[in-house]
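hi support,

uploading two proteins for the ticket. first:
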Amino acid sequence: MRYFLCIILPPLAVLTTGRIGAFLLSCLLTLCLWIPGVVHAILVTNDYYEERRHRQMLRAIRRNRY
């Protein structure tokens, strides 16, 4: 769903990740030209999902460790 938002409304997709600074940058990039805003939103969204997977993996490791 967020990747769909990245194409339609890039700043909103970035805002749903909870990164305010990236949101402001995405607004600026989207106002200048649409494509840089979309690319930035995709990168931020991908990083959000990667960080989430990393946290889940750490939780699973910690559970099995103790």
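and the second one:
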Amino acid sequence: MTLSNPWFIAALVGVLGLFHLDLIATFLNLAQFRHALPPQLKEIFPDETVQKAGEYAAASSKLDLLRSTASVAVLIAFWWGGGFGWLNGWSDSWGWSEIPTGLGVIGLLILVQNVISLPFDAWDTFKVEAEFGFNRTTAGTFIADRVKGLVLTALLGGPLLALVLWFFQTQELAALCAWLTVAVFSIVMAWLSPRLLMPLFLKFKPLENGPLREALLALAARLEFPVVDVSVVDGSRRSSKANAFLSGFGKNRRIALFDTLIEKHTPAELEAILAHEIGHHKCRHVPKQLVVGLLETGLLFFLLHASLQSPGFFAAFGVMGKPLGLGLVLFSILYSPASLLLGLISSASSRKHEFEADAFAKKACGKEPLIEGLKKLSLDHLSHPNPHSLTVWLHYSHPPIGRRLAALEG
């Protein structure tokens, strides 16, 4: 673990470089609140709303900064204090074979990571979100969600991870085998998640018969988008923030509307929001994003295979030998800069898709209902009215409200 090791330099620059880049973006984004809004946004955001949005952004950013600082500090201290070498030696003393040892090491580190993030998650939910009127999560629901998440990670991720480790232990084409396996798993989970996993966290009930249900189904029929069900999701049990999504494939698609969305929007606005979601499917955004995700996963496994073959890679973290499970953890640290670069491409593509879905909804329902719906969503979520370009570039999967409205008006 010396400065002459290029793997060490790459990991160090990745960890500290990304931390400081995010820090700069956060300060620039908060500084935007000191600038006057463009005239078209001033008509939407009253001064008191801008002030409250600034306070919300500052509180959230402060917490995020504390979270990332703690995470980087713990990682650097553990790394430079010989923690990874110690963990490797300790896990060897268990006397297990390669794959169970790898699963144990990764599972232990995931558990530690969850313990470290737990107080920050609780502060975010019960302090920041509650202070600004968003939180409706009880302590029982908060704890249950995290327990369910850990159990699902073990039940679903454990066997998949064991198979990936087995590939890298036994197969010459391990990267290809792992990529194909994860690709199939991702596609299957995209189909199963709305049916089996999401109901573990959210309650779905059919939208009652009436004008709204009839209007939404009529819109779907007019747009030649087959729908078998319209459901209401009890999002209000956790947050006052609203959302909507479509799930399923082929002729088994389902519309899901958060109850908070129905409470705050007119039927015309709900139709426009649904048309936007249908636009994503009509414009083939879902399969495009799936393909991009699979290509990124293929690159990840290719780079992982190359890393695991190098003794210098493990030496950069003070680890002797080539332990598979710990190698996956170390690679996740090294991969973070590449992940950022790929994320920039993915986010830019996603923002482009949002413009296209808006254009589809405008054509289907007219621009006014969608414009009003977007304004309400932005105000209700206390979104940053005019975020800095660097923050948009790094973190926004949706265009800022000003750009979306300008595109709809134009």
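thanks. also noticed: DSSP finds 17 helices and four strands in the chain.
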